[in-house]
Amino acid sequence: MRTTIIYLLSLILLIAGRARAQEVMPLSLKEATDYALKHNMNVKNARLDIAIQKSKNAEITGMALPQVNVKDDFNMYPNQLQSFVPAEFIGGAPGTYVAVPFTPKFSNTLSGSASQIIFDGTVLVVLQGKKTLMKLAELGAQSSIQDVRYQVHRSYYVLVIAQKQLNVIANSLEVIRKMAREQQAMFKEGIIEKLDIDRTTVQLNNLQSDSLRTANMFVVGQQMLKYTMGMDINTPLILTDTALENYLDEAKSDMLQDVNYNNRIDYNLSLTQLRYNEFDLKRNKYKSLPSLNAFGSASYLYSSNKFGDLVKTNNYIFYSMIGVTLNVPIFSGFQRSNQVKQAKYNLEKSRNTVEFARQSIDFETAQQRNTLKSAILTEDNARRNLELANSVLDIANRKYKEGVGSSLEINQAQSELLQSQANYFQAQLDVLNAQTDLKRAFGAFAN
To answer: How many CB atoms lie within 10 A of CB 290?
Structure first.
């Protein structure tokens, strides 16, 4: 038995390409989930989306704060703009004109400006909608977290069942090898025919092929779990939550739960989208309201025909201005009214989406309950069939030892037992998967 288990473990390491010695990491279902929530890239990006939305909200808040700017304009005129004036203005001959530059060669203007929104209905609504935008980002992150938890649970259960299958195959290999050794001794004594040995050898080879296939599935399943968790696929793991004694009771208990729509992320998303469209309608309505803005500016103007004088001279001009701007929308070519209509239609669509989300949740929950109920009934039948197959093999072994049975009967009983065990393991996995799907329908993985 020990030799067989070592063989299977070595086979797994060989298939995985991890023959080098590494420290094995024990992993419970909770530890796998916690690790995934910390290292999975989709979850990381979802948390970054929340941080991005926080920054966007701060940007939106800045719309209502004063806007202050400072600007410096430097100009140089290699060929100054000139205008013709009567020459007699500067002592020239009457009736003639001379070109006179009116702009110094160098000028510099240092100015500052500030503005403040006093009232703007659209900005007010946008500020009110910040929480809704943040809620959308948070729900998106929760959706990613829910998906990762769901995937970890399903991947973990696949490995648990595969590990149990490997243990059963190891036991079966040990039993068949022992029978093969006994048959070799009986063949030498002329008690049985070589045909009996060949039948056992065929069954042994088939079982070894099954062990190889199951071991490969186990390795691939581990890689899938590690990929979901965001873990290096070369890290060796050992599962610690392999006991399934109470899984049926837990599954039956889950079937009795009532669905809470507020636990479903998709339902909350539709509600939040509804709230967002309410703000959008309000924003479009407020476009017809007047807006009032205050502004002010101050500037220093320096001019000189010599560049160095710009920083030396006190000959500058200072000017300032303050004012308010009142904008009263009167007619926009029916654009605003049509934008309001579009917002109303989108709001109506959102209400329909919320109702459809409720109907979808009801349908999904009922469907998953039926699936779990069917899986439990199938598991019960597979378990009873496995018990019966064990009993048949036990009787065949006793008959064979008493000399009233044949190796063919044992081989057939052993094959039926292996098939019954495979069916039972698949039934267990179906129950676990159906329970996981039902939990997701209830929104259990959202928090």
So the answer is: 11
Take residue 104 and report the two structure tokens written for it.
Answer: 């110094």
Distance CA(409)–CA(200), nearest Å, equals 11
CB environment 335-372: b (16+ within 10 A), e (fewer): ebeebbeebeebbeebeebbeebeebbeebbeebbebb
- Decide: helix, strand or coil at residue 79: coil
Q: What is the pLDDT of residues 16-51, one digit of tens each?
A: 444 344 678 899 999 999 999 999 999 999 999 999
Give the confidence band of 149 by pLDDT, cuts at 50, 70, 90.
Answer: very high
Q: Token pair 């070369």 is at which residue?
A: 234
Q: Rounded to an integer, what is the distance from CA 3 to the centroid of its chain?
A: 43
129 vs 280: CA distance, rounded Å: 9
Cα–Cα nearest to 264, from 45, 447, 437, 37:
447
Contact 434, 368 (CB under 8 A): yes
With beta carbons less than 8 A apart as the criterion, state whether 104 and 81 touch. no
Cα–Cα distance for residue pair 124/121, rounded to 1 Å: 5
- Give the separation between CA 277 and CA 272, rounded to whole angstroms: 9
- Per-residue model confidence (pLDDT) at position 313: 63
How far is the C-alpha of 191 from the C-alpha of 445, rounded, in Å? 62
Mapped onto helix, strand or coil, the DSSP state of residue 139 is: helix
Largest CA-CA distance found in the chain, in angstroms, rounded: 149
- What are residue 26's DSSP bridge partners? 238
pLDDT digits (tens, 9 = 90+) for 44-70: 999 999 999 999 999 999 989 999 999
pTM of the model: 0.79
- Distance, in Å, from the CA atom of 22 to the CA atom of 25, rounded to the nearest integer, reads 9
First to last CA, the chain: 44
Residues 6+ apart with CB under 8 A from 21: none
E-strand stretches of 102-193: 106-119
Q: Quick one: DSSP state of residue 310? A: G
Pairing of strands 237-239, 25-27: parallel
The first and second tokens of residue 46, run together, are 């979802």
Question: Encoding tokens for residue 292?
Answer: 């009032």
Among the listed residues 430, 19, 364, 411, the one whose alpha carbon sits nearest the alpha carbon of residue 180: 411
Q: Residue 277: which of 148, 383, 405, 129 has the closest Cα?
A: 129
More confident residue, 253 or 103: 253
The pLDDT value given to residue 7: 46
Query: Please, are residues 106 and 306 in contact by the beta-carbon 8 Å criterion?
Result: yes
